[in-house]
Amino acid sequence: DAKTTQPPSMDCAEGRAANLPCNHSTISGNEYVYWYRQIHSQGPQYIIHGLKNNETNEMASLIITEDRKSSTLILPHATLRDTAVYYCIALTDSWGKLQFGAGTQVVVTP
Amino acid sequence: GAVVSQHPSWVICKSGTSVKIECRSLDFQATTMFWYRQFPKQSLMLMATSNEGSKATYEQGVEKDKFLINHASLTLSTLTVTSAHPEDSSFYICSASLVGGSYTFGSGTRLTVV
Description:
The structure holds two protein chains of two kinds.
Chain A: E1 9-13, E2 18-23, E3 32-38, E4 45-50, E5 55-56, E6 61-64, E7 70-75, E8 84-91, E9 104-109
Parallel strand pairs in A: 1-9
Antiparallel strand pairs in A: 2-7, 3-4, 3-8, 5-6, 6-7, 8-9
Chain B: E1 4-7, E2 10-13, E3 19-25, E4 32-38, E5 45-51, E6 57-58, E7 67-73, E8 76-81, E9 90-97, E10 103-105, E11 109-113
Parallel strand pairs in B: 2-11
Antiparallel strand pairs in B: 1-3, 3-8, 4-5, 4-9, 5-6, 7-8, 9-10, 9-11
């Protein structure tokens, strides 16, 4: 599965949109982009995933570039409860092994 | 949504003893489950993959005789840390893959070996 690169940390103001970038320049055509987050001392929480098209659900939006070499997770209105480590993962199929990188520590401030 | 219940949430044990961690899928059948551990300020590290009714597959560097995994039913997978030592103190998390392409995680078990 392709390696992903994320910034180690970012701050976001409460109520503003948080845009989390992820680089996956070696992603192959059948690899999905998954986003998870982990709030301190809890199990990871699924956010969203996509293959080529942009995706949106009640939690976030996922924007994937046309060449699929990068993507952005958008939290439309960040709240303090969105403070967490966010992981971007490229994975071939839904039965594969989810391997976590270092992720991005997002801190939402009042 | 699909829930994986993990118990205990924390445990303290003496060095040399064994500890069992359970993960149950509450409203779905988990054919495949994954076990992770996480040291402080580090990311999750995949330890092993377990499939119902067969032997677990361990990641490189994970001792299969130390971390015993049993996945005897479609709703229960267990991880037993045998002869635990202080260096085994960690946060252990289970996960199950879901139809539709996502994964659900347990709430984790904080193991402290004294």
